[in-house]
Write a structure and sequence with these properties.
Helix content: 25-40%
Strand content: 25-35%
Strand order of the largest sheet: 2-3-1-4
Number of strands: 4
Structural class: alpha+beta
Order of helices and strands: HEHHEEHEH
Radius of gyration: 17 Å
Length: 123
């Protein structure tokens, strides 16, 4: 059964481009880990289900964006709850400036047109 036949939406992927703030950089590494573990993670876990993330450091390649946080949500509602949860923590605009959000579904064109996802390449 395809995703469309099952009546469920494909997962949502969000690329959250962020830049560290002076307040975040003034913290020691230990303080950063503690702040994230006590202020951000509990809020996300308490207010969301069906989301997972990966975090990428990019500051050595970009001056505009220091990190990219990739979120996958099982649906649009789960993604909205995630953003609401993050906005209620110091992560949002205090520790990090959210530079941009790029949200999409993987190979959406292939599902729309019923074709093979030729742009997904593995060598």
């Amino acid at each position: 059964m395809s995703v469309e036949e099952s009546g469920t939406m494909p997962p949502v992927t969000a690329f959250m481009l962020v830049k560290t703030t002076p307040e975040w950089l003034a913290l020691t590494v230990e303080e950063r880990v503690a702040a994230f573990a006590t202020q951000v993670v509990p809020a996300v876990k308490a207010k969301t289900t069906g989301v997972r993330s990966r975090f990428y450091d990019t500051e050595f390649y970009s001056a505009r964006v220091t990190d990219v946080w990739v979120w996958e949500a099982e649906d649009h509602h789960a993604y909205q709850l995630l953003i609401d949860a993050l906005r209620e923590t110091p992560f949002w605009d205090r520790y990090f400036e959210v530079v941009d959000l790029l949200v999409g579904t993987e190979n959406g064109y292939a599902r729309t047109y019923g074709v093979e996802a030729v742009t997904t390449i593995a060598t």
